[in-house]
Automatic annotation (TrEMBL), chain A:
The keyword Transport is annotated on this UniProt entry: no
Keyword presence, Cell division: no
Native species: Actinoplanes xinjiangensis
GO annotation (BP), single: lysine biosynthetic process via diaminopimelate
Protein name: Diaminopimelate decarboxylase
UniProtKB/TrEMBL annotation, chain B:
One of the GO biological process terms: alpha-amino acid metabolic process
Classification via InterPro entries: Cys_Synth/Cystath_Beta-Synth, Rhodanese-like_dom, Rhodanese-like_dom_sf, TrpB-like_PALP, TrpB-like_PALP_sf
Organism listed in the record: Actinoplanes xinjiangensis
Transmembrane segments: none
Protein name, per record: Cysteine synthase
Length: 488, 439
């Protein structure tokens, strides 16, 4: 038995505040899952509003103004969107459908930023509604100008997304982006904006980099400052810099667990300990003649600096070109700063519940737990996030202490595992128990949910406090006044 | 001593005894192998030279670029050697974390490519990680790269098999030490020396030191990262122990302050790790033993690393006239003017208007007739005293009126009778519709 305990490698999720209180309420969880079935998504609209406030505090500390545009793509929930509309937040939409969704949720047009690949319909509605269009290319800007002219629409505020920033000193390499005009060749951009001056109003320049690397983002912000200056010299009047999203999330409660798990994975890949993953999957690491090769291809689940703290760190980073903190340079220029956080705004904003259907052994010494849901319902594997679910027993927990199990889904596919990592639970689950995947609102909830094999897709409910008790309603029934009748 | 080429000076480094009064071991003689005496400053000079020397003839004619994954001493040595032979040098790294080393490499003419960070929105099906891609690109034949591949190249180990190891035995009068302690980066030096010592005397104990996980000691790897090193064979070491950056700095301080040895952090780590390991053994010994550790490089390149971790070592006297010394009362009493009052004052008194924002921002837009002194430079000037006459009225402006209020309070304390800060700063000025110009 002691040997078994030594092999336990928890990656316990970081669960705090309201989410912790909700997930500790086991009878409540069983009641809603019993009524609405598995899988079931929970979202906490009040929490997203608090997260927006934490970003706002960073702005205040740097004396900066400008919009915080929630990247809608991270979650489809209406409750979350409406909660943000209720506190004066902004929304970054990436499709015609998302634009319609946020307009209906009550966002004022100047609080909406249209990004992503754009159809003509999407451009028309954006221009008609008067939202900010964050343009990926010169062609997109001339298409937009054409639509504005042809339909006699009012002048549209636009941001020009840039990519491929030059660096000074060392060459900071960055993954190539499919989006944005090269920052090293902006002349055609200023030309098209000058030509359509009465149709397009250049609000500023933008970037979004898909990286956790601060030096890359610092280089991009530096590049935006130069581009703004350049635009000014071309007679344009830009006022804002949009630095996109990617502020990140810390998923795990304990840095030590993450460090020892990753060490043990290395040892397992080298064959020095029993596997910690399905079929010895290495998550990008492989054994070549006793040496580990490859790179661990997972999300850095434990991060000491994430979300608003990451923004703060970026703003304090010194510009290599101007030897002054980037935040101060933005302020010196009197520019507004826009951000588009997705994942980071959804910290502690939700969970996915899956019911345990069956628990058995695979004949090779591993325990398999089949759940009523699959890998599209909780996207741990798809997004490379490694963490344990919380066990919500229905009755008395099974004796025998901690258990390491593999979670299989409800699709008739060999590859349908909720995560290829062996997860660890305080006791062996039993049919009827629930597994709560905490802190999954950002990208891990309904990003790619579909109805494969006609299995049910999750319902989403919004949970809110009423005094000490938790109440809920269906996601699309939630409005910022819900449950607050007493206060009008 | 006369040499034909600076590369002839590589190796033959001294072995120096550490005073027992410093390390406190009663039965063990502890020696430092002074690799910091190599001409380009580190143990890596040996490996760098051994990996490229036979490939240099004709390399310039073929237009080759020397390339290595290194953010430290190997890059430094290769940059110098490449420069001497008319070759460009390119260093690819994801860990260029010591600014002095980065600047030194740029000074030596190296091109430094920093790899991108991990993807924030991960696509696990994308196995194309930048390091692997880079590795394939520089390793391909005919790609124009002279890739030294220090983590996998046996010539790295051979440099120590033929140099460092035999030198230690010779300096100990033909005996191998009982204990050999070294930090592990590429594992080249420790593996090469261990091989020679064991062949001479199989009883030698070899201690490998790595950094604690999620700690950072420039030049060496942590316990996971060593497994990515092709030259690393756990069988080389009798013991592998982790040291923290804190311990490495403690050791560095002992070496630089008490032993006249200007060692960098890994030299300090090797010393501290050696004493920590040997202390337990020393107590039970009856006869005399000998131990050797490696001092890999010098302290000067790590000043900012040390300043970050031990700011108290660099304590400086408080400077006169500093905004940090202002009291709450002084700040509250800072003389200020709102936009309308400031405009009237400018018309009536023509104060000197000092804009404290960055020159870059000032150039784009500013209050007419203002001059620009960026805040930190202005702060520097005030340490020396009032930079303008007491009879000259002064209006200070910054973006939001916060810094300008601090400096107005400070100038008032310094005895200037007529200094004001613009409330709300240039932003309030702009929002009130007052004129801003671009010269
Ligand atoms: C343009 C843009 N903005 C913002 C985001 C949000 O990123 P995150 O959720 O990492 O903050 C994305 C994500 O793909 C994006 O493409
Ligand atoms: C400062 C410093 N110390 C120690 C080492 C470790 O030496 P080796 O690579 O031979 O293991 C290195 C190597 O990069 C180094 O730069």
């Amino acid at each position: 038995m002691t040997r078994g305990v030594r092999l336990v490698r928890y990656l316990q999720p970081r669960v705090e505040g309201d989410l912790r209180s909700l997930l500790d309420d086991h009878p409540w969880l069983h009641q809603v899952a019993g009524a609405l079935g598995s899988p079931l998504n929970l979202v906490l609209p009040d929490q997203v509003a608090r997260n927006a406030e934490r970003f706002r505090e960073v702005y205040r500390a740097h004396h900066l103004s400008g919009g915080i545009y929630f990247a809608h793509k991270a979650n489809r929930s209406s409750a979350l969107i409406r909660a943000l509309a209720g506190v004066g937040g902004g929304a970054d939409v990436a499709s015609l459908g998302e634009l319609q969704h946020v307009l209906a949720a009550g966002f004022a047009p100047e609080r909406i930023m249209a990004t992503g690949p754009k159809s003509r319909e999407y451009l028309w509605l954006a221009a008609r509604a008067g939202v900010i269009v964050n343009a990926d290319s010169v062609t997109e800007l001339s298409d937009l100008a054409g639509i504005v002219a042809a339909h006699a629409l009012p002048r549209v505020r636009v941001m020009a997304r840039l990519s491929g920033f030059a660096t000074t000193g060392t060459t900071v390499l960055s993954r190539a982006s499919r989006f944005g005009t090269p920052a090293t060749g902006t002349a055609p951009l200023w030309d098209v904006l000058a030509e359509h001056r009465d149709r397009l109003d250049l609000l500023g320049v933008a970037y979004h980099l898909d990286t956790v690397g601060l030096p890359e983002k610092a280089a991009a912000l530096d590049g935006c400052l130069s581009a703004m200056d350049d635009a000014g010299r071309h007679g344009l009047n830009p006022r804002a810099i949009d630095i996109g999203g990617g502020f990140g999330m810390n998923y795990l409660a304990d840095a030590g667990e993450w460090e020892s798990w990753t060490s043990e994975l290395t040892a397992a890949v080298l064959g020095r300990r029993p596997p910690l993953t399905w079929n010895g999957h290495g998550y990008g690491l492989r054994n070549e003649g006793g040496t580990v090769r490859g790179t661990l291809g997972v999300y850095p689940a434990h991060r000491t600096v994430a979300g608003p703290d990451y923004l703060d760190r970026l703003l304090r980073t010194e510009s290599t070109a101007h030897r002054r903190p980037l935040g101060e340079l933005v302020l010196d220029h009197l520019y507004e700063l826009y951000v588009e956080p997705g994942r980071a705004l959804l910290d502690q904003c939700g969970a996915v519940l899956l019911r345990v259907e069956d628990v058995g052994d695979d004949g090779r010494g591993e325990t398999l737990v089949r759940v009523a849901g699959n890998g599209t319902d909780v996207g741990l594997e798809q997004h490379g996030v490694l963490m344990d679910p919380l066990l919500v027993p229905r009755g008395t927990p099974a004796p025998g202490g901690p258990a390491g199990v593999y979670l299989t889904g409800n699709l008739c596919l060999e590859a349908d595992l909720i995560t290829r990592r062996k997860v660890f639970l305080p006791s062996r689950p039993q049919p009827g128990d629930l597994l709560a995947f905490a802190n999954t609102a950002g990208y891990l909830m309904d990003f790619s949910a579909g109805a494969a094999l006609m299995q049910p897709t999750a319902r989403t409910i919004a949970a809110y406090r009423s005094g000490d008790a938790w109440r809920w309603c269906l996601d699309d029934r939630y409005w910022p006044v819900t449950g607050r009748e007493g206060t009008r | 001593m006369r040499y034909d080429s600076v590369t002839d000076m590589i190796g033959d480094t001294p072995l120096v005894r550490i005073d027992a009064a410093v390390h406190g071991l009663r039965n063990i003689d502890l020696y430092a192998k002074m690799e910091l005496f190599n001409p380009f400053g580190s143990v890596k000079d040996r490996a760098a030279w051994n990996m490229v020397r036979h490939r240099l003839p004709g390399a310039a004619g073929r237009g080759e670029t020397v390339v290595e994954l290194s953010s430290g001493n190997t890059a430094k040595a290769l940059a110098v050697i490449a420069g001497m032979h008319g070759l460009p040098f390119r260093s690819v790294t994801n860990r260029m974390r010591v600014p002095e080393i980065k600047d030194l490499l740029l000074l030596l003419g190296a091109q430094i490519d920093e790899l991108p960070g991990r993807s924030e929105c991960l696509d696990p099906t994308d196995t194309d990680d930048p390091l692997t891609r880079m590795y394939h690109a520089v390793s391909a034949d005919g790609a124009g790269y002279l890739h030294t591949d220090q983590y996998f190249n046996d010539l790295n180990v051979q440099a120590h098999v033929h140099g460092t190891g035999p030198e230690i035995i010779a300096d100990l009068d033909g005996r191998a030490p009982d204990y050999f302690i070294a930090c592990v980066g590429t594992a080249g030096s420790s593996s090469g020396v261990a091989r020679v010592l064991r062949a001479h005397d199989p009883a030698v104990t070899v201690v490998g030191l790595v950094a604690e996980k999620s700690d950072f000691i420039p030049g060496i790897r942590d316990i996971d990262e060593v497994h990515e090193v092709g030259l690393f064979d756990p069988g080389t070491y009798d013991v592998i122990e982790a040291i923290s950056s804190d311990e490495a700095i403690d050791g560095l301080l002992t070496l630089v302050r008490r032993c006249g040895t200007l060692a960098g952090p890994t030299g300090g780590g090797a010393y501290q790790g050696a004493v920590r390991y040997l202390r337990g053994i020393d107590a039970g010994l009856t006869g005399r033993r000998t131990a050797v550790f490696i001092v890999c490089d010098r302290v000067e390149s790590y000043l900012s690393y040390l300043r970050d971790r031990r700011p108290e070592l660099f304590r400086q006297p408080a400077r006169a006239n500093s905004v940090h010394s202002l009291t709450g009362d002084e700040l509250a009493a800072a003389p200020t003017l709102d936009v309308a009052a400031a405009q009237a004052w400018i018309d009536a008194e023509q104060p000197l208007i000092v804009d404290l924002r960055s020159p870059f921002a000032y150039r784009a837009l500013h209050i007419d007739r203002s001059i620009n002194i960026v805040d930190d430079r202005f702060g520097e000037m005030l340490h020396g005293g009032l930079p303008f006459s007491r009879r000259q009225p002064v209006l200070l402006v910054c973006p939001v009126g916060e810094k300008s209020a601090r400096y107005a309070a400070l100038l008032t304390r310094m005895g200037h009778p007529d200094v004001r800060s613009l409330t709300g700063g240039v932003i309030a000025w702009r929002d009130a519709g007052a004129t801003l110009v671009r010269d």
